Structures are given as C-alpha cells and as structure tokens.
C-alpha cells in the first residue's frame, strides 16, 4: 500500500492508496482543492468545515449531473441500437425478397431458354 501527501486548503494530509495510484490520488486532491480555493475566493474565510462541505456538495452535484447525462446517453444508445437492428432486419428481409425474385427470374429465363432450344431442334428436324 502506497502513501501520498496531499494538500487541501493549505493543510497536508497523508493518504494511503493502492500502488500505482499515487498520481491519480494527487490529481483528485488537487482538483478538490481547486473547489475549495474557488469558494474561498468567492465567499472569503467562512470556516474550513463550511468550505469543505460546499466543495463536497459541488463535487457531488457534478457527479449527479454526469450520472444523468450517462443515463441519457445510454437511452440514446439503446434507441440508436434498436433503430440499427430494425434497419438491419429490413435489409435482410429485402435481400431475401430480392434473392427470391432473382430465383424466379432465373427459372423463367431457364424455361424460355429450354423453349428456344426445343423450338430450334424442331425446326432442324
């Protein structure tokens, strides 16, 4: 287990994380600290706890919005996938109908060809 020192609101915190996740954890802490700095700039010194709560709520708000967008995108993907499947099924149906028509035309050509061959043999004979 690795340890990382992060700074939030001017205070250092020692945090444990999985090996290899040190940079990721440091980045998350820096991002969270930017929220606190932003609120500090906006509201001034209103207390560490209040700043931390406000920053935490802002992060959760972004998470909820991202989850909403993810659900919206999943629904959109499902609709597009359904439409794609319907188009594929229609294309398969049209292909089957075309193959059947082509088979009918081939049989008719075969019948005409046989009739022409028979007429040619009768005229020779």
Tell me what the structure shows.
- It comes from Pelagibacterium lentulum.
- Homodimer. Interacts with FtsZ.
- This is Cell division protein ZapA.
- By secondary structure, the chain is mainly alpha-helical.
- It has helices spanning 22-43, 48-124; strands at 2-8, 11-17.
- The protein has one domain.
- It has two helices and two strands, in the order ββαα.
- A two-stranded antiparallel ribbon has the order 1-2.
- A hairpin with a 2-residue loop joins strand 1 (2-8) and strand 2 (11-17).
- Helix 1 packs across helix 2.
- The N and C termini lie far apart (100 Å).
Topology of helices and strands:
Layout (H helix, E strand, L loop, with lengths): L1 E7 L2 E7 L4 H22 L4 H77 L1
Antiparallel strand pairs: 1-2
Briefly characterize the structure.
The chain is mainly alpha-helical. Helices cover 79% and strands 11% of the residues. Keywords: Cell cycle, Cell division, Cytoplasm, Septation.
Helix-strand sequence = EEHH
Inertia-based shape: rod-shaped
Question: What characterizes the major β-sheet?
Answer: 2 strands, antiparallel
Alpha-carbon distance between the two ends: 100 Å
Q: How many H/I helical runs?
A: 2
- Widest beta sheet: strand line-up: 1-2
What is the averaged pLDDT score?
94
Radius of gyration: 36 Å
Low-confidence stretches: none
Give a count of the beta strands, DSSP E runs of length 2 or more: 2
Helix content: over 70%
Q: Which percent range describes the beta-strand content?
A: 5-15%
Count the domains: 1
Structural class: mainly alpha
Subcellular location: Cytoplasm
Subunit structure: Homodimer. Interacts with FtsZ.
InterPro entries: Cell_div_ZapA-like, Cell_div_ZapA-like_sf, Cell_div_ZapA_N
Protein name: Cell division protein ZapA
């Amino acid at each position: 287990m690795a340890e990382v020192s992060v700074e939030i609101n001017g205070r250092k915190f020692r945090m444990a994380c999985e090996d290899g996740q040190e940079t990721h954890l440091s980045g998350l802490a820096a991002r969270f600290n930017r929220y606190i700095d932003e609120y500090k700039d906006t509201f001034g010194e209103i207390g560490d706890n209040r700043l931390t709560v406000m920053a935490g709520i802002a992060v959760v708000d972004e998470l909820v919005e991202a989850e909403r967008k993810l659900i919206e995108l999943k629904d959109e993907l499902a609709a597009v996938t359904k439409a794609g499947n319907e188009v594929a099924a229609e294309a398969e149906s049209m292909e089957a109908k075309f193959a059947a028509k082509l088979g009918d035309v081939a049989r008719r050509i075969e019948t005409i060809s046989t009739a022409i061959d028979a007429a040619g043999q009768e005229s020779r004979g």
